[in-house]
Amino acid sequence: MEKTYIDANQQIGGWFVQPNQSQPSPAIVLMPAVHGLTSYIEETIHRLARHGYTVFALDYYTTLGQPQLNSPEDVQKTLAGISDNQVMEDAQAVVNYLKEQPNVKEKEIGVMGFCVGGKFAYLAGCEVDGVKAAVNFYGMIHVLETDNHPVSPIKKAGNLNVPLLGHYGTTDHLIPKEHVLEYDKELQNNHKHYEIRLYQGAGHAFHDHTRPNYRAVAAKEAWTHTLHFFDFHLKGIYL
């Protein structure tokens, strides 16, 4: 796909798709996993567009260039180098861009993401103005606090400003079930509007059919709940 840039210096870019309809649509900012704009992400944004959503998939690597991710060490190095604050600034710019589009309902914008993108979707629900709902697919709950990751996600529970749907697998080797239960407790204690769903026997990246951890039943269930969640919060559709 051809990349869309939303700033004059071409520092913020991604894939932008719109539904095949004449009336204005709600929109979703999609935060990819660490591998960025893959064929899986392309398929996902088109699935959302067919369901009536405008979608912008943010490219974290617009200015840095696509990293080499051939080993777990490469992945960890890349994750450590992505700035939470920069991604939130870029996400805000994307939301502002979507609001300016004539065929987008400016008050009906959601955010969703996978893996590190799930974490960013959750953080956007805490920090980005104009977001109305967030979906977090197996986003990290605890991270080592550094300059690029100044606050561990679990500590942001009190800042959540929008309804949240979270999807996690019970056999995720990166995010233990006890972390998910702690996340649930923090959101509950802060009286947030949320739902955390656990999928038995599913591991990390269970929704990505291009990965070995793909689990068809869990993926279908999570996708169905995601569409119902966005349809309710962004389209006002009741089951």
UniProtKB/TrEMBL annotation:
Residues 14-231 form the Dienelactone hydrolase domain. It holds the Pfam family DLH. Transmembrane segments: none annotated. InterPro entries: AB_hydrolase_fold (IPR029058), Dienelactn_hydro (IPR002925), Dienelactone_hydrolase-like (IPR051049). GO terms for molecular function: hydrolase activity. This is Carboxymethylenebutenolidase. It comes from Alteribacillus persepolensis.
